Amino acid sequence: xxxxxxxxxxxxxxxxxxxxxxxxxxxxxxxxxxxxxxxxxxxxxxxxxxxxxxxxxxxxxxxxxxxxxxxxxxxxxxxxxxxxxxxxxxxxxxxxxxxxxxxxxxxxxxxxxxxxxxxxxxxxxxxxxxxxxxxxxxxxxxxxxxxxxxxxxxxxxxxxxxxxxxxxxxxxxxxxxxxxxxxxxxxxxxxxxxxxxxxxxxxxxxxxxxxxxxxxxxxxxxxxxxxxxxxxxxxxxxxxxxxxxxxxxxxxxxxxxxxxxxxxxxxxxxxxxxxxxxxxxxxxxxxxxxxxxxxxxxxxxxxxxxxxxxxxxxxxxxxxxxxxxxxxxxxxxxxxxxxxxxxxxxxxxxxxxxxxxxxxxxxxxxxxxxxxxxxxxxxxxxxxxxxxxxxxxxxxxxxxxxxxxxxxxxxxxxxxxxxxxxxxxxxxxxxxxxxxxxxxxxxxxxxxxxxxxxxxxxxxxxxxxxxxxxxxxxxxxxxxxxxxxxxxxxxxxxxxxxxxxxxxxxxxxxxxxxxxxxxxxxxxxxxxxxxxxxx
Length: 535
Known about the structure:
Blueprint: H1 2-30, E1 46-53, H2 57-68, E2 81-84, E3 98-103, E4 110-117, H3 123-132, E5 139-142, H4 146-158, E6 168-171, E7 178-179, E8 188-189, H5 190-193, E9 198-200, H6 205-218, E10 225-226, E11 257-260, E12 262-263, H7 267-283, E13 292-293, E14 300-301, H8 313-325, E15 332-337, H9 343-356, H10 360-363, E16 364-367, H11 381-384, E17 394-398, H12 426-442, H13 458-466, E18 486-492, E19 508-515, E20 522-530
Parallel strand pairs: 1-4, 1-5, 5-6, 6-9, 11-13, 11-15, 12-14, 15-16, 16-17
Antiparallel strand pairs: 2-3, 3-4, 7-8, 10-15, 17-18, 18-19, 19-20
């Protein structure tokens, strides 16, 4: 019996060794990144790479909608753009999804292809494969997260053996302001990692912080401090960077209180936490009249993992410190900074506070960035955000209008590409902005006497992006702060003392505001009620 057992163990061991050897031989023969095989580009056409993970099917669907809507007229003028989406959703998952864009009167086609990042096709492998191909792409669209944006920018900058000009990098939703330097030097602006070739279409973390803070301090129903008393003074143009001075307000006799939380396992949380602390300090009075910026070790929560509704140990410690330092005046509103990369930590904190603080809806305003989608409070509210149990208003940031659905009678959207009030529109509008900018720059007007053609050089496309009439980008390629920021206020329905419970009322209202080009004015562009289940 022991002899058979020994023979069995020996056989299994040899099989495992053979399997490992075969795997090593397979990797050695094929080499790294062999799955990164870009398609050839027909003569006269140009390629734009949409470089996203293989799991980004939903993001690709929204991108297709945004590009397809580039066919729509602009201010009543036909666009002349046609987007062929017949190969956008191939049946085989190994096939390359593709959109083909043409413009009336122009020679050449713009092919936008989704090359999928995966285990055998890293970002660096795709960049290397694209550089080896006979023709370099015109641009690479990517950077859905700050980490991926940095990795992609580094890979593009390192690669010098392009067959033609270096491609442009069009960053989608990477919001980090600066990234660590690879050589150990000081942190650099994300756009400077791949200089003169990077164009960021989203706003940065610092721009988000300024927009959310400026809105809260100008909105009478949300501003911090004692009720009915002006609580902030304007931040001058020097302190606020490019923003014009806000309307002057006297400094409160008692500075407002700010509770800035942070989750240590979330880099996004750390960056946004610091941004809010610094800007709120200046906006609420600065060194001359500093706000009560409560900065305790307990507010630095060790981890963000937890259940749906119950705070974890670190969050409980932060809640205890908030209760201990809460202003005694029940009419005074404090600022609660929730820089989370997901909705769960914010939901746990905002569910726990009303259980411990009476009338918490009047005593706090919570602020955050762009990590929480409006879908959390709108489409998925029934299971993701119990608004009836969260009376504290929450202000967040979006890069485009999240409630910009098509009017019922609007016939301009292509068939099958209408925006219905089923989900938010922020991602589609951002993708649409990228598509319109790219198409306008690549199919640019020709000099007098020359035929219209699709541009084949990335520096020509970059020149058109930099000289847009609306001055969309600054000199580094970052999006300018000239308006277009959107903030969303999730306003819970406060039922304190409500004697008419039978009256139909929503659990909350989602109000959307857009900053105008003067940098000061906010215009409400939409309002959506959040109804309880069954209504």
